[in-house]
Amino acid sequence: MNFANTPRFSNQGLRPGSQLLLCTLASLALLIGDSQFGLMDRTRDALSVVLYPIQRAVNMPMAAAAHIGEFFITQTALKQENAELRSRELAQSARLARLTSLEQEVQQLKALNGLRTGSLQAGQLGEVLYTARDPFSYKIIIDKGLDAKLAAGLPVVDERGLVGQITRVQPLTAEVTLIIDKNQMVPVVNQRTGQRSLLYGYGGGVEVRYLPAAADIQPGDLLVTSGIDGLYSEGIPVARVTRVDRPAGASFARVLCQSIAGVQSSRYVLVLPPRAAMPPRPEPAPQPAKPKKKKDTEDEG
Amino acid sequence: MSYDRPQELLKPVKRRFITLTFALALMMELLPLPVGSTRWLPDFVGLLILYWAINQPRRIGIGMGFLIGLIVDVSTNSLFGQHALAYSVTTYLVMLRQRQLIMFNLGQQALVVLTLMLANQLIMALVRLALGSAFVGTSYFLPPLMGALLWPLLTKLLLLPYRHHTL
User: Fold this and answer.
1) What architecture (CATH level 2) is domain A124-271?
2) For A168, which residue in chain B has the nearest alpha carbon?
3) Beta-carbon contacts of residue A28 (< 8 Å; ≥ 6 apart)
4) What is the pLDDT of residues A130-186, one digit of tens each?
5) Which of A133, A175, A182, A206 to mutate against chain B (most B CBs within 10 Å)?
6) What is the C-alpha separation between A191 and B15, in angstroms, rounded?
7) Residue A249 falls in which region: left (phi positive, over 0), alpha (psi -120 to 50) or beta
8) What percent of chain A has pLDDT over 70?
9) pLDDT for residue A298 is more than 70
10) Selected residues 43-102 of chain A with any CB under 8 Å from a CB in chain B
C-alpha cells in the first residue's frame, strides 16, 4: 500500500481551487510589480548578497578543475603563446608610441582651443560569475558591484570590443545587459564612411535599423561607438556588418551584423570608467503655464 | 490498477530528504554551465516538484510549488513570479488527478510529465511575451522532452533510499 494513496480524512486548509487562485494572483502581482514598476529591486539586491557565497561555493569545483587543467599545460603550448604575445606586444608598443605623441598633440590643440580634456583611466577588471539562466534576457553577472564603486550605465568591454552595459548594481555583483539583448541600443558610426546609425539588439544578435535603403554600407564594414550619447567613449569596436538586404519597396535597408566581442563567451571583462565631464544638457523649453494655474491659486488660497 | 510496477512497501519519506533533493536541484541551477547547455537541460526543480506532488501530495502542494518557484526566480535571475505562476498551475493540475497519476506506470507518467512540463514552458513564454520580451525560438520547448525521458530514471533514483533491503 502506497502512502500517497491514503485519502485525506480531515480536510485542512483551503481547497485546491482557491489555493491556485491565491497563488496566481500573487504571482501576477509580483510579475507586474517587478517588470513595470521595479518594485522588487530592493529584494533582489538583498537576495543577491545571500546567494553570493552559495554561488562562489558552487563555482569552486569548476574553477579548481580549470586551475588543474591550466597547471598541466604543455611546454610547447606555453612557448607558442609566449612568442605570440611577444610579437603582439611589439606591434602594440609601436602603435602606443604613436598614440602618445598624437595624444600630446591633441591635448595641446585642445588647450589652445580652451576645451576640457577627458582623462584616460584604467577600467575595473571583472570576472563573469555566471550567465543568467533566463533564456529570455541576455545578461551576465560579474563579481564586482557597489564594493568596486560601479554604477548603472557604465560600458563593459572585453579585449576585442563592446560587450554591454551595466544595468543593475548590487552590493557584491553587477548585472551586465549584453548588446544583443532586445531593445539594447548602441549609437555607432561606420568606420569606413563615417555614417552614424543606431545598432539594435534583437535578442540573440544585433542589426542596424532605420538606415535609408540607399545608404553606403556593405558587408565587412566595421561599426564603432560614435560617442555622441555621452555614455560610451568613442571608437570601441562593436560589430561588423555581415549582410545587407535592400528589399524593393522598403525605405530602410536591412543590415545584419555580427558582434566583435565574445559577447557570450568571454570570461573576463573590463568595466570602463564614466566619461569625464560632459557639457550640461540644454535647458528644456519652458512649458506653457496653462494647466498649472488652478494649482497656483490653490497654493495661494 | 496497473500490474507492471509491483507496489512495494516503502519506508516513509523524510522531510529532510525532500529538502535535500530540492537543494541539489537548485545547486544545478546555479552551476556555471556552458552557454549552449541551457537549451536542452531539463528544468530539474520543475521535475522534482511534479515528482513530489504526485508521490507526496500532502508535503508538496500548490503553496509549496509557488514558494519554490519564487526561489527559482531568484536563482535564475528571471522576473519575480514567473516560475511561481507556472509551478502553482502545474501542481494544481497534478492535484486534480493525483489518485490516477499515482496508479500509472512510468511510461504513462512520463507522457503526463511531458505535457505538464510543456505547460510550464508555455506559461512562462506567454508571460514573458506579454511583458515585452522577444520570443526565444522553438528550441525553448526541447527541455520538457529531455525531462520526460529522464522521468523513469529520476523515479528509480528517488525511490532508492526508501527500499527495504531484502535479503
Assistant:
1) Beta Barrel (2.40)
2) B77
3) B81, B85
4) 776 677 878 888 888 888 888 888 999 888 889 999 988 888 888 899 998 887 899
5) A133
6) 63
7) left
8) 86
9) no
10) 43-44, 47, 51, 54-55, 58-59, 62
